[in-house]
Amino acid sequence: MTTAIQCLASTADDATRLGARLGVPVHRIAQHRFPDGEIAVTVGPAAATTILYLPLDQPNDKLLTILFAAEALRRDGCSRLVLLAPYLCYMRQDIAFHPGEAISQRAVGRLLAGLVDRVITVDAHLHRTATLGEVFPGIVANDLSAMPVIAAALCQSRLAPTTIVVGPDSESQPWVDTLAGLIGAHSAVARKIRHGDRSVEIAFDDPARIAGRPALLIDDIVSSGGTLIACAQALLAAGATSVDAVITHALFPPKMLPEFTAAGISSIRSAHTVPHPTNAIVLDDLFAEALRDEVGAAPPEALT
Ligand SMILES: O=P(O)(O)OC[C@H]1O[C@@H](O)[C@H](O)[C@@H]1O
Predict the structure, then answer these.
(1) Which residue, 55, 13, 7, 58, is CA-closest to 31?
(2) Predicted ipTM?
(3) Which of 63, 92, 165, 202 could make an SS bond with 234 (beta carbons 3.0 to 4.6 A apart)?
(4) What is the pLDDT of residues 178-216, one digit of tens each?
(5) Centroid of ligand 1 to alpha carbon of 225 (angstroms)
(6) pLDDT tens track for 31-84
(7) CATH 3.40.50.2020 at 147-271, yes or no
(8) Top mutation candidate among 123, 222, 278 for ligand 1, by most atoms within 8 Å of CB
(9) Structure confidence at residue 298 as a pLDDT band (50, 70, 90)
């Protein structure tokens, strides 16, 4: 069995580290955009087992890239295609919120399940869907948790013993519980009302729990940043002595960073799931462990 990783240039560094860890070659997928907006995709040499390393932030072109890469790889002899999408797109659109609205989660799941044999992701945003298997009918799907890795990183950074781990809404309760349990910290979860894509309102039922403590704000996704900013402001209003944030997926544009600072957030650390300047938590071990059984005896080669 031969195994290789294929990645886009934007994630070559992360993919190269993973390739070295697994002892498999890493090849780049080239993309060309035609004047009419269509794209051409050129894959590297196909291996019998190919791992497509493709975080699905800014996803629309990337979904087409998977479609075209799968066509080329299968034609060139790939018999097993594994999608490693450290961030999985469209998981939040899991019901029809308005009459006639597409359930994007379902559509994307069915599309990908028809193209690849296995999907691996991290902290998929599954709140009304019980398991990732429901999203990807007929194939294996693994939703890895970044929380143990985040907990280990936090333990190394020596948190103040009074630190309180805070989640911005009820959806964050599982991560908050897991993380607070792993690092042995107090915890609190806010109530959130979303008024629009960028407008949210955050309140704490028991602000006295927060007063006088450094807060560690935890979330899976920061996209518009509205949730993080509103939560930081509510924490500081409740008397938190400082606010630092640790998130899994940093989807916001880096030019927004001054807005977080202005809201009183001292630092933001994210996991290496999408390319981002706040990335500080490396998930190589998590990915290598999940992919161990996909790896044959192929010798490592340089990035081509
Ligand atoms: O407020 P923004 O950053 O746009 O969106 C991210 C938030 O929206 C939720 O679904 C996520 O879990 C996170 O709390």
Answers:
(1) 7
(2) 0.98
(3) 202
(4) 999 999 999 999 999 999 988 999 999 999 999 999 999
(5) 7
(6) 999 999 999 999 999 999 999 999 999 999 999 999 999 999 999 999 999 999
(7) yes
(8) 222
(9) very low
Residues in a beta bridge with 246: 218, 269
> Strand 186-189 vs strand 191-194: parallel, antiparallel, or unpaired?
unpaired
Closest CA to 216 of 235, 191, 198: 235
Q: Where are the beta strands (DSSP E) in the chain?
A: 3-7, 26-28, 30-33, 39-42, 49-53, 80-84, 118-122, 140-144, 164-167, 186-189, 191-194, 200-203, 214-222, 242-250, 265-271, 279-281
User: Which residue's CA is minimally distant from atom 9 of ligand 1?
Assistant: 221
Nearest ligand 1 atom to the CA of 230 is: 1
Cα 21 from Cα 293, distance rounded (Å): 13
Q: What CATH fold (topology level) applies to the domain 3-144+283-295?
A: Rossmann fold (3.40.50)
